[in-house]
Amino acid sequence: MKIIECPRDAMQGLKQFIPTEVKIDYINTLLKVGFDTIDFGSFVSPKAIPQMRDTAEVLANLDLDNTRSKLLAIIANVRGAEDAAQHQQINYLGFPLSVSETFQERNTNKSIAEAMEQLAHIQDICGRHDKSLVTYISMGFGNPYGDPWNAETVIRFVEDLDKLGVKIISLSDTIGMSNPEIITYLFGSLIPAFPHIEFGAHLHTTPATWQEKVDAAYNAGCLRFDGAIRGYGGCPMAKDELVGNMATENLVGYFENKGLNLELNKEAFQAAMAQSVAVFS
């Protein structure tokens, strides 16, 4: 079981800039917990995501000597991938690919066709710099724009990514539209059909529906889940203030109740929980 903690996703939409030293202290606490991966920052235009303009400085001050966690940085184009790839500490580059043409344009200023072309170059960059590419299929469970969507479209996207050699694909419930039936269908179809690909779940949810979504993904074979402590963050286009990131503490409790030993440092986890209140206040 892999839990990916996503402080970057929790922070990036906040208008008030979180001081760099606060980010460094918080992520250093998260590194002590023992999560598989920390989605810590992004190499994108500071005009687009001003909150993440200090990612390189944050990275330079992380204590990576006593952690088993790997680092993931989000990128939106070839230039960002080249910048991120220069940092030896980063293990994964994450790229958001949308099945919604509208959202792809809004999110990365590219068409889907252009994004796929960029992905081929980014995959090559990852190969040359010993990084792994994580592709997020955003709007993976539906979209609010009226763009055509069905589960078979998502499966075709996976087929195209498989041809590029992508080995990690995370299905993203960008605005909290998923339900157990579609989660079960997609993971239940994809995991057996592409056993060489690691599939993840990046689920946005309301407090009332998180468990049924995790249940569906886990029972369909998903073993990689993204979360953010206290459910901070989420997509502003959800138009529902209760829709946030999957709360990491819910994931931890769920899997421990299933008898899984996540090998987390509980003291560090509680410290991060407490610290998060001040970080996101």
TrEMBL record:
Ranges for the Pyruvate carboxyltransferase domain? 1-266
Task: List the SUPFAM superfamilies.
Answer: Aldolase
CDD domains membership: DRE_TIM_HMGL (cd07938)
Secretion signal, residue range per the UniProt entry = none
As one GO molecular function, the record gives: lyase activity
UniProt-listed InterPro entries? Aldolase_TIM, HMGL, PYR_CT
User: Which terms are listed as keywords in the entry?
Assistant: Lyase, Metal-binding
- Which family does this protein fall into? Belongs to the HMG-CoA lyase family.
Protein's recorded name: Hydroxymethylglutaryl-CoA lyase
Organism the protein comes from? Pontibacter ruber
